[in-house]
Amino acid sequence: MMASPSKRDGNLQFFVPDEFLPVLVNFPWQESLEKWQEHGLRLLEVKSGLSRHVVRFVQANSHRFAIKETSLESARREYATYVRLREMDIHTLWPVGFVARNDGTRIIETKVGRLPQERHTGFLITELMEKVVPDSFLFRRGFSKNNRRRIWDAVIRLFVEMHSQGVYWGDASLANMLINFSSEIEPELGRRTRLRAILADAETVEIHRSITDSLRLADVEFFLESMQWTEADLRASGIVRDAVMTDEDQEFILETYHKRFAVEQEMRSFELMTHIDVDKLLGDFDVKGYARVLLKHINEHKWYISERLGREVSLVDAAEEWYRDVFQPVCKVFLQYDVADFFPEKTAASLYVEIMEHKYLLSEKAGKDVGLIVAARDFVENKATRKLPQPIIRSIIRELRALFKRLPPPLQAIYS
Q: What DSSP string runs through 185-252?
């Protein structure tokens, strides 16, 4: 966080980057946010959840700001929290900075007499994101069970993202989130649109080295409880008539959260053992046990290259070679033929693991090792959400055969 203001102007101090100053200095900071509509600003009609503070959304040039009026200490703290969360790659609003206004002094009565006390107002500034949907708009149409599950899934991923890094929210509700249709680079598979839940109120957030299971569960249970208030608010506004969250939804959220958190712990353990950055290089593991399958596979790779070299190869070195010579080239073949489009919910890691698992199942059924080529063909033919054209399947298999033939003979036994 900036230790000193980037600009002072009378009783105002601007703790914002220089690039934003030419726009922000012209805002009517001397007034309460409640009166900003009287000053000719381009205020945006953005529906937000209930808030303890006044919030205004302002369009200025190419920037769209959310500005919250609060105490100076709260603005300072929340800004610093957003910066820290962003450093941790947690999905939150973009922090711009804050403005401090000195409102003069007042006399307060104390045990030692009447003393002067300075008064300050703080304005927290964040930048509005594109393609986000507030809670009130999510349920304007009658969502199917599948669409509700996609929203809950995005919320669960945010909880796991936070809790695995020691972040306790303390005020988790849909009103304090935005749902973002985010275009992201999926490792080794190209760009995809993903539904993301965005933390949009960091006032109560606490960041620790780790948090207890009871605090994690308290966050999730508070969210479930808050949905009752959200539903009551949406009903009173006439936006919905049916239940927003069913008992089945609650069970889904709790069960899926526990599974996802366990998967997250497996991913981090896998990273420690292999030194492979899962988020950047492989993509998330979707199911508990995928880390075990990949480790088994890398250990097989390790054994073969150790035999070939006549010396013991470390797991880290074997993992690096496996990623470079096998995983990444296989994914490049998938990317070349847009295989990910036919498996829209799969990451590169989960797609690879499920093909390997398919190989084990086919081999067990056949009573012999059928090889990865046969397994890959059967998998893409029978497990895709829609049929791949046969010419594409033949091209994929041809590319994989050529790839595996380039490996040393002992490794061809694993992959061919």
A: EETTTEEEEEEEEEE---TT-EE-S---HHHHHHHHHHHHHHHHHHHHHHHHTTS-SS-SS-HHHHHH
